[in-house]
Request: fold
Amino acid sequence: MTPELLLGCDFGAALRAGDQAKKTVVVEAVRLGPGEYAAGVGGRNARLVDNSAHPVAWQRRRAGWTVPELTRSLRGDPAVRAAAFDCPFGVPRELLLDPEFAAAVGEALFRTRDNFVAFVAGRLPLEFDGPGAGGVMQGLRRFDGWRHPRFWRPRGTDAELRGAPPLKSAPPNVFNMTLAGVVMLGQLQSAGYHHAVTAESAGAARALVETYSAGVARVVGATRKSTPAETVGLGLAYLSRRGVSLALAGPVRRFVEGYRSAGDDPDGLDALLCLVAAVACREGFAEAVTGGATPEAVREEGVVIVPTR
Reply:
């Protein structure tokens, strides 16, 4: 029987390949049975523990993935039941209906999400200008017209969760990962995945879920003063109260508690919190945070899904 895999991903789309492969971190769990999961040292978790066997030499020093590499990995893996990403999967509907937004990149009015995704995907190929760690992601300069602060508008889901607007470009990571995430999402949808915009659809097979690690942390009871180790414990305890066990292999737990790509950004912990959200979706105790947006708006702009309190 094919194993059922769930993934949590702290997503990033830095300009250079080496930086992407530091920031975009995945923690994977196998569903052993109803309410029972294990994140061992095999599968995609192998690079969290020992990446020496990676076929690309410079990535042997990276625990994460480039966006194109992760997209290819997911496209070809039918065992993935749900993957939760800390990444905006859309922009506000008001921008899709804004002639100024479209004109900023020389386009007619977008109107719909599908038109927006097709436009971005046609200009952002998810590839680098060279094979090394210094390779630069191609196509991002084509969207410079959207970097203006007038387009830093939150969706309803962002406002409720106190998240950054999806096109905020100072610093540039949110802007870059929104565009790269939209392209990745489109490619994965063409491979049979679906974009979850309700709690019910997030529990269906092959779901791509937008979540927010800070929002998950708040649900499980973590605060800004919580250490990564405390937050991991709170996340596992939250699942246990719901009748779900998530066993972390020792090396995986040490990674998620200690890994940072730069500064104080706890990328390993954030990936685990995304995995908690994916498990909650699979087990039926997740909710979509709409921020008061109508179902029509949610379908066009996407929504963050977190575990229920």
The chain has a mean pLDDT of 95.
